């Protein structure tokens, strides 16, 4: 009897495979596998944008292979729907990712960024938020100034030698120093420049590992690649251990908060502060500098120069230092930073998982476990105010008096319970860094280089330039 059952199962199975092969029909699993594979190879933002360009639909549904199970995934291209999801309390406050990959990155049920264990994430996020207090934001202006001025020596040497500058690396080392100072109590100037660059390089390599492991099913691993990425994760962890020995805990810094909570993922939290706090702002600022370094942007540069002059006059009559009210006067620089985050958002997609079944206002039902890709890049470009949509136009955020104006839906930091913890710090530090660099130096895109529009970028969880793009640097009024 058992033998007959086995024979029937084999025959039915063989017929099923033959039927599917003969008719070229794929199972739901195979379709999800194929789609996931395509996205893993070509990246989420590229495929999401391609689908949007073809279909122009507010929500596009695709099958996804999520930890070996078929799951629906919704790509959201509409501002109102994105807002509804972002603001839907805890319903979308986790992300989707492959568990094995997250384990290898140290993020599985650990840290804050991709921690899918809601209660552990919630407690950890509070530590991050607490450390970004008003005091922290206040001291950020001065710390950012110090970290930027400390790079003048390297930059002046390049000017003197008439060499081009890898500005992105300089910006990364500045934001690294700021993060170490504000959150670990390691003062600016403690680490040699070469040591800063070593850590910056390790952060970039971790990002590569992150994008490799995040969504890739383990069946798609390549042994030689996994070895490289495991090593990158190990290297950044080693840097965190080293930084821990230098950390100075004070009553209100991050190092103290996570220490006192005895978190078993203490080091992962520090590692994630380095990831989240450095690359995003450096890359966003780089796009801004690159845009205005273009020959075509002479008008924007003129506006910036006159803004810097009037701000300098203000600083002279106050206590000689950059302060929050003075930063608030940097409308043109703020507009430029916003426009760079609109045209080339460093986080072009926000990935979320539904924790409960939710019916959206347009009738779409997202079931518990469904995945969501909020396509911030297409949302930022699609609104009629921005025309042509992909062109950098600093005036998109300014009125005729060069004052900042309200803009349509703009969420480069995401929002809601899982939105960016560091968005206010990011704006403060970026403005302070830009003020100091733009007051002293002029940057130009060398002839033959791509423009911001034609520059190739790739998604390593953060969207960054594919190639090194050195800029010509000169001193203003030397
Ligand atoms: C221009 C600079 C920055 C940009 C564009 C940016 C953008 C983003 C985006 C898009 C997200 C995901 C939001 C979502 O899913 O809704 C995010 C998350 C996050 N950001 Fe930022 N960020 C920046 C700077 C910073 C800084 C300076 C810090 C820390 C000091 C920081 C800390 C974080 C953390 C911890 C998360 C994860 C929050 C969570 O998942 O609970 N970010 N950021």
Descriptive report:
The protein has 18 helices and 10 strands. By secondary structure, it is α+β, with helices and mostly antiparallel strands. It has 2 domains: 1-37, no CATH class; 43-475, Orthogonal Bundle (Cytochrome p450), CATH 1.10.630. Strands 1-2-6-3 form a 4-stranded mixed sheet. A hairpin with a 5-residue loop joins strand 4 (358-359) and strand 5 (365-366). Helix 5 runs antiparallel to helix 10 (193-213), helix 10 (193-213) packs across helix 11 (223-246) and helix 11 (223-246) packs across helix 13 (266-292). The longest helix has 27 residues, at 266-292. The radius of gyration is 24 Å and the shape is globular. The structure holds protoporphyrin IX containing FE. Residues 112-113, 125, 128, 276-277, 280-281, 284, 341, 346-347, 350, 412-414, 418-422, 425-426 line the site of protoporphyrin IX containing FE.
Short structural summary:
The protein is an alpha+beta fold and 478 residues long. The protein has helices at residues 2-22, 28-42, 44-55, 79-86, 99-105, 118-131, 134-149, 152-160, 167-184, 193-213, 223-246, 254-260, 266-292, 298-317, 324-327, 331-343, 376-382, 423-440, and strands spanning 59-66, 69-76, 349-353, 358-359, 365-366, 371-375, 441-444, 457-460, 462-465, 472-475.
Topology at a glance:
Blueprint: H1 2-22, H2 28-42, H3 44-55, E1 59-66, E2 69-76, H4 79-86, H5 99-105, H6 118-131, H7 134-149, H8 152-160, H9 167-184, H10 193-213, H11 223-246, H12 254-260, H13 266-292, H14 298-317, H15 324-327, H16 331-343, E3 349-353, E4 358-359, E5 365-366, E6 371-375, H17 376-382, H18 423-440, E7 441-444, E8 457-460, E9 462-465, E10 472-475
Parallel strand pairs: 2-6
Antiparallel strand pairs: 1-2, 3-6, 4-5, 7-10, 8-9
Helix pairs in contact: 2-3, 5-10, 7-9, 7-18, 9-10, 9-13, 10-11, 11-13, 13-16, 13-18
């Amino acid at each position: 009897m058992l033998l007959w059952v086995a024979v029937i199962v084999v025959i039915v199975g063989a017929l099923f495979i033959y039927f599917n092969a003969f008719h070229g029909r794929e199972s739901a699993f195979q379709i999800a596998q194929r789609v996931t594979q395509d996205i893993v190879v070509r990246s989420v933002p590229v495929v999401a944008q391609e689908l949007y360009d073809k279909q122009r639909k507010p929500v596009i549904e695709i099958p996804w292979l999520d930890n070996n199970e078929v799951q629906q995934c919704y790509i959201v291209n509409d501002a109102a729907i994105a807002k509804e999801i972002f603001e839907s309390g805890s319903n979308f406050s986790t992300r989707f990712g492959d568990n094995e990959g997250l384990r290898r990155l140290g993020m599985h049920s650990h840290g804050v960024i991709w921690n899918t264990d809601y209660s552990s994430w919630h407690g950890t996020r509070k530590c991050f938020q607490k450390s970004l207090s008003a005091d922290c934001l206040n001291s950020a202006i001065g710390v950012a100034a110090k970290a930027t001025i400390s790079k003048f020596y390297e930059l002046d040497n390049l000017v003197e030698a008439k060499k081009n500058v890898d500005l992105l690396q300089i910006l990364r080392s500045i934001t690294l120093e700021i993060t170490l100072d504000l959150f670990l109590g390691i003062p600016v100037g403690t680490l040699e420049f070469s040591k800063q660059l070593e850590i910056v390089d390790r952060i970039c390599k971790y990002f590569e590992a992150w994008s490799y492991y995040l969504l890739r099913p383990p069946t798609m691993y390549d042994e030689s690649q996994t070895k490289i990425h495991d090593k990158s994760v190990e290297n950044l962890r080693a840097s965190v251990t080293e930084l821990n020995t230098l950390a100075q805990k004070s009553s209100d810094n991050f190092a103290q908060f996570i220490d006192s909570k005895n978190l078993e993922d203490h080091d992962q939290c520090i590692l994630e502060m380095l990831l989240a706090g450095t690359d995003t702002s450096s890359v966003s600022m780089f796009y801004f500098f690159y845009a205005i370094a273009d020959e075509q942007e002479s008008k924007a540069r003129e506006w910036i120069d006159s803004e810097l002059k009037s701000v300098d006059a203000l600083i002279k009559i106050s206590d000689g230092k950059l302060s929050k009210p003075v930063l608030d006067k940097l409308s043109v620089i703020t507009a430029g930073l916003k426009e760079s985050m609109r045209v080339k958002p460093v986080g072009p997609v926000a990935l979320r998982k539904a924790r409960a079944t939710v019916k959206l206002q347009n009738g779409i039902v997202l079931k518990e476990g469904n995945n969501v890709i909020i396509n911030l890049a297409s949302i930022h470009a699609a609104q009629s105010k921005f025309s042509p949509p992909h062109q950098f136009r600093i005036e998109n955020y300014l009125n005729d008096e060069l004052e900042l104006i309200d803009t349509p839906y703009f969420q480069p930091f995401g929002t809601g319970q899982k939105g960016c913890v560091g968005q206010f710090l990011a704006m403060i530090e970026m403005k302070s860094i830009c003020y100091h660099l733009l007051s002293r130096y002029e940057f130009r895109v060398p002839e033959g280089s791509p423009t911001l529009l034609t520059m190739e970028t790739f998604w390593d969880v953060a969207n960054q330039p594919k190639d090194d793009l050195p800029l010509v640097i000169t001193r203003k009024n030397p």
